[in-house]
Each structure stands twice: as structure tokens, then as C-alpha cells.
Design goal:
Layout lengths: L1 H31 L7 H30 L8 H10 L3 H17 L5
Helix pairs in contact: 1-2, 3-4
């Protein structure tokens, strides 16, 4: 029972962090084009956010990605798994990937 609660807690935290990244990503993309104008006081929190985001993406892939696609991941991050299913031949997995690909591409065109 404790393992289930731990897994649910990690999944929830990863979900919240990933949601924050969805909202922050377009802003960071705009800042990226001006990165030479910023000092380390701005860069350090941004890079820490990216590390946290990457780790939450891995956590999301291991938990929710496994639940969504009903398979253990071959890839480390959810986007790579999504791209494999989106371009693959399995129609069932393609249908499962479609809403996620639409969401990601709405935020970052061409992401998937």
C-alpha cells in the first residue's frame, strides 16, 4: 500500500511540474533567443527549471506514459515515446498518441 501511495505522489508531483513547464515553455523559448543578454542570476534558475522539467518528464513517462500506452517505456522521455507511436504502424497506439501530440504541437509547433 505504501508503494502505491508513493507512486501516486510522484505521479501527481510530476504532473504538476510538467503542467508548469507547459505554461513556462513558450516564455523560455522567447528568452532563449536573447540568452546572451542575461547574466548568471537569470540563467541559473532557468537551467534549474530545465533540469527539474527533464526529471519530471522522465517521471511522467514512467508513470502516466506507461498507463496511457499500456507498455513499459523504451525511451527515457515522453516526447520520444510519443514520436515513436505517432509515426509507428500500430493504429491503436497512434490513436492514443494523437491527443498528446496535438497538445504538445499547440504549445510548440513541430514538437512531435
Amino acid at each position: 500500500m505504501n508503494w502505491i501511495l508513493l507512486i501516486l505522489a510522484v505521479a501527481l508531483i510530476s504532473w504538476l511540474i510538467l503542467g508548469g513547464i507547459f505554461f513556462a515553455y513558450p516564455t523560455v523559448q522567447r528568452l532563449k533567443s536573447r540568452r546572451d543578454e542575461f547574466g548568471w542570476i537569470i540563467k541559473v534558475p532557468i537551467y534549474l527549471w530545465f533540469v527539474l522539467g527533464y526529471l519530471s518528464d522522465v517521471g511522467f513517462n514512467l508513470t502516466w506514459g506507461t498507463f496511457i500506452f499500456r507498455e513499459l517505456p523504451r525511451e527515457l522521455i515522453f516526447t520520444d515515446r510519443l514520436q515513436r507511436h505517432w509515426t509507428g504502424t500500430n493504429e491503436k497506439q497512434k490513436r492514443r498518441a494523437q491527443p498528446w501530440a496535438r497538445r504538445l504541437n499547440a504549445i510548440d509547433p513541430g514538437h512531435v
